[in-house]
Amino acid sequence: MLSFLAPALVGIAVFFIYPLASAIYFSFTRFDLLTTPQWVGTRNYAYLFTQDKLAWQAAANTLWLVVVLVPARMIAALATAMLLTAARRGSGFLRTVFYLPALAPPVAATVTFVFLFNPSTGPVNSLLELFGVDGPLWFDSPTWAKPSLVLLGTWAVGDLMVIFLAALLDVPKPLYEAAALDGASSWQRFRHVTLPALSPVLLFAAVTGVIQTLQYFTQAAVAASVASGEATTGGGVSSTFGYPEQSTLTYPLHLYIAGFRYYDMGYANALAVVLFVAAFAVTLVLLLRFRAFAGGRK
Amino acid sequence: MIRERFLVSIARNSIAIALGLMFLAPFVFVILTAFMTSDQALTANLWPTSWHPENFVDIFTKLPMFDYVVNSMTYSLLATGFMLLSSVPAAYALAKLRWRGSNAVFVVVICMMMLPPQVVTVPLYLMWANVGLTGTLWPLILPMLVGDAFSIFLLRQFLLTIPDEYLDAARVDGCAEWTVLLRVVVPMARPGIAAAAIFQFFYTWNDYYGPLLYTSENAESWTLSLALSQFKHLHHVEWNLVMAATLLVMAPVIILFFLAQKAFVAGVTLTGVKA
To answer: Of A213, B116, B149, B261, which residue is 20 to 30 A from A145 by alpha carbon distance?
Structure first.
């Protein structure tokens, strides 16, 4: 057994247990990359919770995405999956079409969306203009930047849709027939047959969706960088994070800036520990449903 | 009744077609813009007035695109190969061998898989800085030699579907466990292994956070994804070339998907819950 597992055990120790433990230790210290860590007790946490307004803004942005992006993606995934089960002809082709955006590398997809939604030259606002609508500034507007990211996430819903589709096809047909015989409307069939049958998959999707959104980084960083590209010049890679007006500054971006722009490693680790606690609490929900999730050995 | 059903099906098909067009539209605009002149990419014209396939040559001559391709390929191929070497045996131990603590180790693997990468970023960065490997892609490649949590999880789920009888038959014939793994399990698990390899390739090809963390100060090590994110901000590259580069970044993933669609969809489904 050990000869199969030894490398993985080393991996768990070196790349999981050790960095996690040292993140917790470093969070009680103060140091940059050059000096040795100095113990400062809970001062980093005190600063985080009482003084760092930007951390609260970043946490609020991440929470906003959890509350809007996760349900939006789940509803879109369920709707497209149900459309596919209902469609008789061409559903294979349609499935590929719905799935394709999920394949687009996140950086490429984000660059694409910033281009499409460019307020003055992008196709979206050009099309809106044809209908006499004055399109918003999208990724350049503090109000619209996060909703634009939600549109991007909903476009790339295919991965979730495939999981829902497999679950929908597993719902026993006789259940629907019996419900139809009893005179259930299509809404009642959805509410009392489809939803209960899907509940484990929905729970799984919600939990993993929340965890993914807690680490939401790439799309926010790239959208800010590309959208601000014409507005700013120079500066390091992270100098554009949060554009416009910190509206896309997610919590992990704030952590990254603390660590790798300001080299405030102790504080970055305090931010990391708080993120860990949040993610772990959500993971616990999954672990409590361990059997359903992982299908243990009988 | 029949009339009503007919109308419902027409409505449903129209919605499906409209949605399908909306999902495809961004790709169409990327392709069209990639063939435009830079001036035209900034106009409201959605269709190119003249076609410029030389844009795809320009991105290689005006930008160090070739280096980015080599970096991305190195990262993706090595990480995928290393992951298979380390994670297939680990998944086998977790799915098919009986030993105390196997469930506990599996729970740790799930926790590792669920851990936001940003939590352990600073300690890992310091670790790699100590051995002088920051500025390169090695901090992202070397850890794959000791297993990847998500791949172990995915492979274990797949191995569970292989009946124990095949393994026991080989054991009765006197095969050692490594022989059972290599001769019996690996050939039967080919679709699962293919899915894990594809996922790993996609993950590394798409990875932005890792290359940003370790190579942002050293543009020579940039991957395609990281470079693409910087064209507008650092280099003020025109939109037509950005879109040509975007296509180039998308292409390998989409081609690989169509080549291995079956294994891929099976893998995605496997990551969902077993209802």
So the answer is: B116
Query: Who contacts A127 (Cβ-Cβ below 8 Å, separation ≥6)?
Result: none
Averaged pLDDT, B168-184: 91
- Structure confidence at residue A231 (pLDDT): 54
HSE-up (13 A, CA, CB side) for residue A222? 30
Indicate the residue of A23, A94, A166 with minimum beta-carbon distance to B16. A94
List chain A residues with pLDDT less than 70.
88-89, 230-235, 290-298
* Residue A185: inside a domain: yes
Determine the distance in angstroms separating the CA of A180 from the nearest CA of chain B, rounded to an integer: 15
Inter-chain CB proximity B90 and A94 less than 8 Å: no
Contact between B233 and A226 using a beta-carbon 8 Å cutoff: yes
B16, B19, B93 ranked by CB distance to A5: nearest: B93
Q: Quick one: tokens of A138?
A: 């999208």
pTM of the model: 0.91
Which residues touch B230 (CB under 8 Å, ≥6 apart)?
A225, A237, B222
What's residue B271's pLDDT?
Answer: 66
Q: Is residue A38 part of a domain?
A: no
Task: Please indicate, yes or no, if residue A195 is contained in any of the structural domains.
Answer: yes
Residue ranges and CATH numbers for the domains of chain B are 64-236 (1.10.3720.10)
Nearest by CB: B229 against A204, A225, A260: A225
B182 close contact with A: CB closer than 8 A: no
- For chain A, the domain total comes to 1
Residue B275's pLDDT band (cuts 50, 70, 90): very low
Residue A148, domain extent: 53-294
Cα–Cα distance between A273 and A268 in angstroms, integer?
A: 9
For chain B, percent of residues with pLDDT exceeding 90: 65
Whether A17 maps to a domain, the answer reads: no
